[in-house]
Amino acid sequence: VSQVPVAEGKSVQQTVELLARRLEALGADKQGTFGVDCETYHTAGTIGTQGQTGKLMYVMHNSEYPLSCFALFENGPCLVADANFDTLMVKLKGFFQNAKANKIESRGTRYQYCDFLVKLGTVTMGPSARGISVEVEYCPCVIANDCWNLLMEFMQSFMGSHTPGIPSVFGTKHDSVYSPGDTMVQYMELFNKIRKQQQVPVAGIR
Predict the structure, then answer these.
(1) pLDDT grade for 138, boundaries at 50, 70 and 90
(2) Any keyword Nucleus (predicted)?
(3) Which end of the chain is less crowded, N or C, counting CB atoms within 10 A of the terminal residue's CB?
(4) Of 158, 108, 118, which is closest to residue 139 (Cα–Cα)?
(5) What is the mean pLDDT of the chain?
(6) Which CATH fold topology does 35-98 show?
(7) For residue 67, is it left (φ>0), alpha (ψ between -120 and 50) or beta?
């Protein structure tokens, strides 16, 4: 999962269309849509202590796994629960409070190209588009490090110089099996990066 910068002189939507055209020129077929969303919760007990917020937890959903809900801490574990976890979070509001203005999501089109699955998404916060996400999966392989060079070569074919480096989550995996939680960690890191890029102007507007 990586972020693609907006092309010079173009909007987010135009850049997404440009990437989509490149994929279709390679021979990729549209396979429906996808969505990943993320809500931020902070630990309730420490709110207001000298303006500091407590530890943040991110509750995430991915349309590829409709029956699951993912709860992640930064630099911490990734809990995979069933979809009723959202209801549980409401009951835990004495411990975790939802930072309502912070919901961020990526939605877009899924493409299949031979054994590759590509998800091209527009990242939005509230009504405005904030960035572009690209998720690439090589479906036959479950050991991430075994297919990284192949993934790189494929990504270069339509992302050019914006091909990402090896994700940090791979560093801890080595030869172990890649899981859906690893994808969600990458989305969490991407969303947090986009949030930080936006913070300065947003504060100025308020």
Answers:
(1) very high
(2) yes
(3) C
(4) 118
(5) 88
(6) SH3 type barrels. (2.30.30)
(7) alpha
- For residues 113 and 105, what is the distance between their CA atoms, to the nearest angstrom? 24
The confidence score (pLDDT) of residue 152 equals: 93
User: The whole model's pTM is what?
Assistant: 0.89
Strand locations in 63-140 (E): 68-73, 78-82, 96-98, 104-113, 116-125, 128-138
In the chain the first and final C-alpha atoms are separated, in Å, by 31
Tell me the CATH architecture of domain 2-34+104-197. Answer: 2-Layer Sandwich (3.30)
Ranges of CATH 2.30.30 domains, the chain:
35-98
The amino acid at 102: N
User: What are the beta bridge partners of residue 141?
Assistant: none
Q: Tokens 């349309």 map to which residue?
A: 63
Q: Helix or strand or coil: residue 189?
A: helix
6-31: average pLDDT:
94
Which amino acid appears at position 25 of this protein?
A: A
User: In the numeric block, which tokens belong to residue 49?
Assistant: 């202590």
Which residues have C-beta within 8 Å of that of residue 168, sequence separation ≥ 6? 189
Cα–Cα dist 60/189, whole Å: 12
- Calculate the alpha carbon distances from 7 to 144, 152, 189 in Å: 29, 20, 22
% of the chain exceeding 70 in pLDDT: 90
